[in-house]
Amino acid sequence: MQRIGHLLPATSLGADRWVAQICAPVQVDIAHPTARALLPEFQYGPALTPTHTAELQRGAEQLAQAGADAIVWHGTSGGLDGAAHARTVARVIERTAGVRVSTVTLGQLDLLARAATHSIALVTAGSEQQAGRLADTCLAAGLRIASLTALDLATPREAAELPVSKVRRILLDADSADAECLVVAGTELPVAPVAAMVERELGKPVHDGARVAVRTGLDLLGTGVESPAWGGLFTGGVHAGVCCDTH
């Protein structure tokens, strides 16, 4: 059985709630192993301090020892601080663990590029300041922001504990007629249970960080999964591999 290692920010609550359920049809152990690393939300550039590098290396070593065949970094720092930062993080993990590595940010940009998506409705659980930085990363990748929604929730727990019925309403309200895809930054909002329903209602894809993390890990392994109950990200087989040198 292949294993996808998930390296999570220390504050993450939401990302590991859905992974085992989504990938039940395939022989991939993705609920475990996991490790956590303490990195700040804002780096303001691609560089990592020695302390932050050491944190990533520690988590990568844990996942390598646990037998991970590929690793995905779940932090939103790549979205907040740009694709160059995400690539820096991925390379540190990759050099340490000796396996293929990507991040939620790089996986997201890769999926949108492969679908030839040009315009998105962007949603974040965080502040308007965070929304602006996320938008900058998307704009730098050549995407147009059709609408921008910042929920301004104070903590990851507050986002993770929102009722899924409310999340569905938020997503429907955040859509724009000009958007080709609804992109939810971060991994905390419980989008996974309602993603397929919202996709049917809007007639367009919905990408959230938690499900993109799973999709990215599967792509790193070259493994397809048919789980249409979890939305369009899990239909159509393998999406050719993403890596830290993409975008």
From TrEMBL:
<dbReference type="Pfam" id="PF17645">
    <property type="entry name" value="Amdase"/>
</dbReference>
<protein>
    <recommendedName>
        <fullName>Decarboxylase</fullName>
    </recommendedName>
</protein>
<dbReference type="InterPro" id="IPR053714">
    <property type="entry name" value="Iso_Racemase_Enz_sf"/>
</dbReference>
<dbReference type="InterPro" id="IPR026286">
    <property type="entry name" value="MaiA/AMDase"/>
</dbReference>
